[in-house]
Design goal:
The protein is an alpha/beta fold. It has helices spanning 14-25, 37-47, 61-74, 115-136, 161-182, 217-229, 256-264, 266-274; strands at 5-9, 29-34, 51-55, 81-84, 143-148, 186-193, 237-241, 244-248. Bound molecules: nicotinamide-adenine-dinucleotide (NAD). Residues 9-10, 12-16, 34-36, 39, 56-59, 85-88, 119-120, 148, 150-151, 193, 195-196, 198-200 line the site of nicotinamide-adenine-dinucleotide (NAD). Nicotinamide-adenine-dinucleotide binds at residues 9-10, 12-16, 34-36, 39, 56-59, 85-88, 119-120, 148, 150-151, 193, 195-196, 198-200. InterPro entries: NAD(P)-bd_dom_sf (IPR036291), SDR_fam (IPR002347).
């Protein structure tokens, strides 16, 4: 039987590169999706013939759709694992001072840069959409999707509010979709690293950072291994801190009514939506 095939995004550096290397030890063939052609190619050269570098901007849907098509074909018409990992921090500060505020020629306030939300959240959502298409057309039709969220999605990071929102979004997305996709053999989980030294962090930070608050890359492997080992684990949010992984649950129900809505009203929603002939498109 042919080897299983994985795509890892942001595979030119940091957690993505390390996960790609780790998947090779699990006998995967790995597509290294990366925006930066230099690091992507260097990664593929160093990791060897069971890898393929495909340059991709995950925040562009056509670019990510082409990535999936090429990866599936390279894998011999199969796809088994997708790590939606590429991520960036905020490219504009929400709290910028008045002198940095700008208006356009019509006097309208220019929008805040939300690139981090496009890369960290929108691309993850589209990534699962694409992944399920190709898994359904792969031998066996089973797959594992893992998104790199962040501890910022469980707590918050005041220096990066759009980033924080994107990571909360990823966790909500995984929790909502994971149990549904598991019914057809696709597991959907998120990992939430604390501080792992990578190129994400501005180089000025590292010398200031206390060593005892560093999470080693091996903790990420523990989470990936837990996902690989369990075909039924889905909708999980796995926090990585220091040497440990923690399975984090949703907030407690505030009261019995909220529990009922969360756990027992699904039948009503299903019935109600069945009566909607088609979901209205935007603006309709
Ligand atoms: N390192 C940490 O402490 C930490 C903590 C929490 C979450 N994370 C998350 O881990 C993920 C990986 O980050 P990292 O720490 O390895 O950082 P990194 O900067 O070392 O690696 C991220 C990679 O993603 C690539 N990338 C960026 N935009 C892209 C795009 N549009 N399309 C394709 N590739 C793109 C970058 O070029 C880079 O190679 C991110 O989602 C990040 O938010 C990291």
């Amino acid at each position: 039987m042919s080897k299983p095939v994985a795509i890892v995004t942001g595979a030119g550096s940091g957690i993505g590169l390390a996960t790609a290397r780790h998947l090779l030890t699990h006998s995967y063939r790995v597509v290294l999706a990366e925006l930066n052609p230099l690091t992507g190619l260097a990664a593929s050269t160093s990791l060897g013939p069971d890898t393929l570098f495909i340059q991709c901007d995950v925040s562009s849907y056509p670019s990510q759709a082409l990535l999936f098509k090429r990866a599936y074909e390279w894998g011999g018409n199969r796809l088994d694992f997708f790590h939606a990992n590429a991520g960036i921090d905020d490219r504009q500060l929400l709290y910028d001072s008045m002198d940095k505020e700008e208006v356009d020629e019509e006097g309208l306030v220019k929008p805040l840069n939300t690139n981090s939300m496009q890369v960290n959240l929108e691309a993850v959502v589209q990534g699962l959409w694409l992944f399920k298409y190709y898994v359904r057309r792969s031998p066996g039709g089973r797959g594992k999707f893992v998104a790199t969220a962040s501890a910022a999605g469980l707590y918050c990071m005041t220096q990066n509010p759009q980033y924080t929102a994107s990571k909360y979004g990823v966790i909500g997305f995984v929790r909502a979709s994971g149990p549904v996709f598991a019914k057809e053999g696709i597991t959907v989980n998120a990992i939430c690293p604390a501080f792992i030294p990578t190129n994400l962090c501005p180089p000025e930070i590292l010398p200031l950072w206390p060593k005892e608050h560093i999470t080693p890359m091996t903790t990420a492997f523990k989470a990936i291994d837990a996902i690989l080992a369990d075909d039924n684990m889905t909708g999980e949010t796995i926090e990585l801190s220091q040497e440990n992984i923690y399975f984090r649950k949703m907030a407690d129900w505030a009261n019995e009514s909220q529990r009922w809505i969360g756990e027992e009203s699904q039948g009503i929603w299903d019935l109600g939506y069945q009566k909607v002939p088609e979901r209205p498109t935007f603006g309709a």
